[in-house]
């Protein structure tokens, strides 16, 4: 076989594979556009809906502001800084917690009475959702586990891994500087 023939064959194969690949990607995009991503109905979102407490930035951490109405906070005045999702061994200040929520993330926080084994389980759950979750201690909680999303709160007396997984999966991303994909605060009008 001549080099010319091999060159032609390789060109045809590469072109064919390229067309197939691009066609597959295009079909995937079109199918994605035709599929309407909608938020879960409120009765399928875990936790309790909480009233909007504002979303203004305070000038610096520790600046005076209105007290939060929920423990942990679910909205309200917050720091202009934000922490990235991940596992934290130190408490995250409340003003940073709220900014994390404003970006659509979920906080999984635990009180001092939560066992080391349960903390490891919470961290493992957080690692399953590395873009969506902040896991941290929260001594002010006093007891148990607090799960928060923007205007959403779920408290657990003891670890329920399924409930934590469900909260993260269903609440993360519902809000990101505004309600996403038809989500609402789920408060009765």
Structure notes:
The protein has 189 residues and is α/β, with parallel strands linked by helices. The chain folds into 2 domains: 1-35; 42-171, Glutaredoxin, CATH 3.40.30. It contains 4 helices and 6 strands; from the N terminus they run αββαβαβββα. It has helices spanning 3-34, 94-102, 116-128, 161-171, and strands spanning 48-49, 86-87, 106-110, 133-137, 145-149, 152-156. It has a 6-stranded mixed sheet, with helices on both faces. The longest helix has 32 residues, at 3-34. The chain is globular and about 80 Å long. 28% of the residues are buried.
Q: Give me the secondary-structure category.
A: alpha/beta
The dominant shape is: globular
Strand runs, count: 6
Sequence of secondary-structure elements: HEEHEHEEEH
* N-to-C span: 77 Å
Taking the sheet with the most strands, its summary is:
6 strands, mixed
Q: What is the helix fraction of residues, given as a range?
A: 25-40%
Task: Output the CATH topology of the largest domain.
Answer: Glutaredoxin
Domains, number: 2
Number of helices: 4
* Rg from alpha-carbon coordinates: 23 Å
CATH class of the largest domain: Alpha Beta
Please list the strands of the largest sheet in the order they lie side by side: 1-6-5-3-4-2
Pfam family, one: DUF3105
Organism: Micromonospora viridifaciens
Protein name: DUF3105 domain-containing protein
């Amino acid at each position: 076989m001549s080099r010319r023939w091999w060159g032609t064959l390789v060109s045809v194969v590469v072109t064919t594979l390229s067309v197939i690949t691009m066609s597959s990607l295009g079909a995937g995009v079109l199918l994605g556009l035709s599929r309407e991503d909608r938020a879960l109905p409120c009765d399928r979102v875990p936790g309790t809906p909480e009233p909007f407490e504002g979303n203004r930035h305070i000038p610096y951490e520790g600046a005076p502001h209105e007290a939060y109405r929920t423990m942990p906070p679910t909205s309200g005045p917050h720091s202009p800084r934000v922490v990235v999702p991940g596992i934290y061994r130190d408490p995250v200040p409340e003003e940073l917690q709220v900014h994390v929520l404003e970006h659509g993330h979920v906080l999984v926080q635990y009180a001092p009475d939560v066992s080391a084994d349960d903390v490891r389980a919470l961290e493992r759950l957080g690692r399953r959702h590395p873009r969506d979750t902040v896991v941290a201690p929260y001594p002010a909680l006093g007891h148990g586990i607090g799960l928060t999303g923007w205007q959403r709160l779920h408290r657990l007396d003891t670890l329920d891994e399924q409930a934590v997984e469900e909260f993260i999966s269903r609440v993360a991303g519902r809000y990101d500087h505004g309600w996403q994909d038809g989500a609402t605060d789920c408060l009765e009008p």
